[in-house]
Write a structure and sequence with these properties.
The protein is 81% helix and 0% strand. By secondary structure, it is mostly helical.
């Protein structure tokens, strides 16, 4: 069987892309885990000073405001996202990055029309599908509980 040069290059490229996909997945897993590990570390430190009722809210606010918001405003979160791939968008910090970047992009159009109307442009679909999937899971759980 004789393979022409173009077919060989196409086959070679497809094999290289496969390895890159696995490497991207591993990088995303590691960086997403590191972001969650950072949150867990902060959680353990705050647990010594804050009661359990406010602890979970406090850690989310700290990660959202200090980690995502400030890094996005400084332009560093995009650089982290290039290294971390999908690992930087999966935790809650990625959601704040999408909100903060949209707010920064549309701030020149004014507070009401720019910021207010466009801040959820990127994150709106996440909210819609999150709410719909939450209702679906709740409905399925309710129907299963009726059945059993």
């Amino acid at each position: 069987m004789i393979i022409e040069e173009k077919e060989y290059q196409k086959l070679l490229k497809s094999k290289k892309d496969y390895k890159r996909i696995l490497l991207n997945a591993l990088e995303a897993f590691l960086f997403g885990g590191l972001i969650c590990l950072l949150g867990q570390f902060i959680l353990y430190i705050l647990a010594k000073f804050i009661d359990d009722n406010t602890l979970k809210t406090s850690i989310m606010v700290i990660i959202i405001i200090s980690f995502s918001g400030i890094l996005t405003a400084l332009g560093l979160y995009d650089k982290i996202g290039q290294m971390a791939k999908a690992g930087s968008i999966l935790p809650i910090s990625g959601f704040e990055n999408s909100l903060c970047s949209a707010a920064m992009e549309f701030k020149s159009e004014g507070f009401l029309l720019g910021l207010g109307a466009n801040i959820l442009k990127l994150a709106g679909s996440v909210l819609v599908f999150g709410i719909i999937s939450g209702y679906m899971v709740g409905l399925i759980k309710y129907l299963v509980s009726l059945w059993s």
